[in-house]
Design goal:
The complex is a heterodimer of chains A (49) and B (144). With 49 residues, chain A is an all-alpha fold. Chain A is built from 2 helices and no strands. Chain A has one domain. Chain A is elongated and about 45 Å long. Chain B has one domain. Chain B has 8 helices and no strands. Chain B is elongated, with a radius of gyration of 18 Å. Classes of the chains: A mainly alpha (49), B mainly alpha (144).
Chain lengths: 49, 144
């Protein structure tokens, strides 16, 4: 999941925003979102039989 | 000029032929579109992510989809993942020609990483689709 999040956020970060700094920040933001949402969903699904 | 007017003006201008060629190159070889546009970092990052994702998917034992549905499945279910896989361009075509990653093997499907591999292969194609659109937009002058 981490690898997937890293690769996807690199692509999203590279093609979004106008300057390098904004792209890096956006890439990290997308990575964090992938990770948080992935972990939250995993815990929700853990309790569903 | 406000943003909406600028977008309407952009939409009215047809993309030059070179933009279509760059788009096609970007699809066939992941990263090539940005290389031709001399966007080195984007080529390395976006192309690299696609190549890496594709080969990680194959190494994990992932399976790609083609137009022939397996027994018990329908074409309608087969088509969306096939379109996603097909986004990887020449990587997909070469693997298809070699028959690598297309065989329905129960032993391969039993691997713990099988579904992860499938996901990486799907994502490789989808990310290359995004990279292709990005290269096209840059070549058409719609994006810096």
């Amino acid at each position: 999941m981490t690898l997937f999040a890293a690769l996807a956020s690199v692509v999203f970060g590279a093609m979004a925003k106008d300057n390098t700094q904004e792209r890096v920040v956006y890439g990290f933001k997308v990575f964090a979102e992938f990770m948080v949402i992935g972990l939250v969903l995993a815990w929700i699904l853990y309790f569903i039989p | 000029m406000v943003k909406t007017e600028r977008m309407q003006a952009d939409a009215a201008e047809p993309a030059p032929g070179s933009a279509w060629l760059i788009g096609a190159a970007a699809w066939v070889i992941p990263g090539l579109g940005h290389l031709l546009l001399q966007k080195w970092w984007r080529a390395i990052l976006m192309g690299g992510a696609v190549w890496l994702s594709f080969f990680i998917g194959l190494a994990m034992g992932g399976h790609m989809f083609d137009i022939n549905p397996p027994e018990g499945s329908s074409l309608l279910l087969q088509l969306p993942p096939m379109v996603a896989n097909f986004g990887a361009g020449a990587l997909y075509i070469i693997a298809w020609l070699l028959g690598y990653g297309f065989v329905d093997d129960p032993a391969q499907a039993a691997r713990a990483t099988y579904e992860y591999g499938n996901t990486f292969l799907l994502i490789a194609g989808l990310m290359n689709g995004l990279a292709m659109l990005d290269a096209f937009d840059i070549a058409a002058g719609r994006k810096p």
